[in-house]
């Protein structure tokens, strides 16, 4: 009897070990990706990566839902317009090379969810864009590149970034400076004093839930009738969906699926008016 109890106990332990092994198979490939990334990448925050082809299609379909007058092919065109834009890639590479912060960035940068930001600008044709949290300015130049394309089609727009770090935004130089500027200081204070109507707002600064919600409240009465809000923290908090419910706005969350990268991906929370 004692023998049987010990045998059953051993079987249970072996089963737990096997279960743990089975679960670990979902993560083992990540360890190899982490090692490869650590050996070749300079990035220590705001990681950049390609999206899987499947995820790119999901991104296109997400914006097809929001912009009902835009076709799948039109949205796909805008995505590929940025993805294969040699000019912006050369600008980013050269700006990083000339920067004294180049040890913290990769010379070849992918746009990931910012492809969605670009698509939004190309379709919406905003006059005023506000992005909180600039870092090196990757989002800034992506948004401005879309404004440049819009201008060639007869639609003018301007970008305002906010950041508390006076060294932020070093990618925003050359021709890109003609389409935007950075307001240095606390984002809430900058938003409180901002007087223009906002057509596109991107939250990407302090990623605490409390601060994120304060930003939405700060711009609540400054949004134009067709304004869209993109939340860079929406995969982690419920603040944008909460704000959307409180203000009778539609909301969709797009989740990233990085291609060949250890990072699980972030996303885009999209809050848009019900008349869209």
Could you please describe the fold and organization of this structure?
It contains nine helices and seven strands; from the N terminus they run H-H-H-H-H-E-H-E-E-H-E-H-E-H-E-E. It has helices at 2-40, 53-66, 72-83, 86-98, 114-124, 138-152, 187-192, 209-219, 239-246; strands at 128-132, 158-163, 180-184, 198-203, 223-231, 249-255, 267-273. It is globular and about 70 Å long. The model has no long low-confidence stretch (mean pLDDT 91). The protein has a single domain (45-273), classed as Vaccinia Virus protein VP39 (Rossmann fold). It has a seven-stranded mixed β-sheet with strand order 3-2-1-4-5-7-6, sandwiched between helices. The termini are far apart. The longest helix is centred in the first third of the chain and has 39 residues, at 2-40. Helix 8 (209-219) links the parallel strand 4 and strand 5. 47% of the residues lie in helices and 16% in strands. It is α/β, with parallel strands linked by helices.
Write the layout of secondary structure elements.
Blueprint: H1 2-40, H2 53-66, H3 72-83, H4 86-98, H5 114-124, E1 128-132, H6 138-152, E2 158-163, E3 180-184, H7 187-192, E4 198-203, H8 209-219, E5 223-231, H9 239-246, E6 249-255, E7 267-273
Parallel strand pairs: 1-2, 1-4, 2-3, 4-5
Antiparallel strand pairs: 5-7, 6-7
Helix pairs in contact: 2-3, 3-5, 5-6
Overview features:
single chain, 276 residues, alpha/beta, 9 helices, globular
């Amino acid at each position: 009897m004692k023998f049987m109890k010990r045998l059953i106990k051993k079987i249970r332990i072996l089963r737990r070990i096997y279960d743990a092994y089975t679960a670990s198979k979902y993560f083992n490939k990540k360890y190899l990706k982490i090692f490869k990334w650590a050996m070749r990448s300079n990035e220590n925050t705001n990681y950049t990566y390609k999206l899987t082809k499947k995820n790119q299609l999901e991104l296109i379909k997400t914006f097809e839902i929001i912009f009902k007058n835009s076709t799948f092919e039109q949205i796909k065109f805008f995505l590929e317009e940025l993805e294969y834009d040699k000019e912006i890639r050369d600008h980013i590479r050269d700006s990083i090379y000339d920067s004294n912060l180049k040890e913290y960035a990769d010379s070849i940068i992918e746009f990931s969810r910012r492809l969605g930001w670009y698509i939004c600008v190309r379709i919406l044709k905003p006059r005023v864009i506000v992005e909180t949290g600039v870092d090196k300015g990757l989002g800034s130049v992506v948004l401005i590149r879309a404004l440049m394309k819009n201008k060639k089609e007869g639609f003018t727009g301007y970008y305002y970034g906010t950041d508390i770090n006076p060294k932020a935004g070093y990618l925003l130089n050359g021709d890109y400076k003609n389409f935007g500027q950075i307001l240095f200081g606390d984002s809430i204070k900058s938003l409180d004093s901002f007087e223009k109507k906002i057509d596109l707002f991107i939250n990407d600064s302090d990623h605490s839930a409390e601060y994120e919600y304060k930003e939405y409240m700060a711009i609540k009465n400054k949004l134009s009738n067709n304004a869209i809000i993109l939340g860079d923290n929406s995969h982690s908090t419920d603040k944008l969906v909460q704000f959307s419910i409180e203000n009778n706005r539609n909301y969709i969350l797009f989740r990233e699926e990085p291609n060949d990268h250890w990072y699980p991906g972030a996303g885009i929370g999209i809050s848009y008016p019900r008349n869209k």
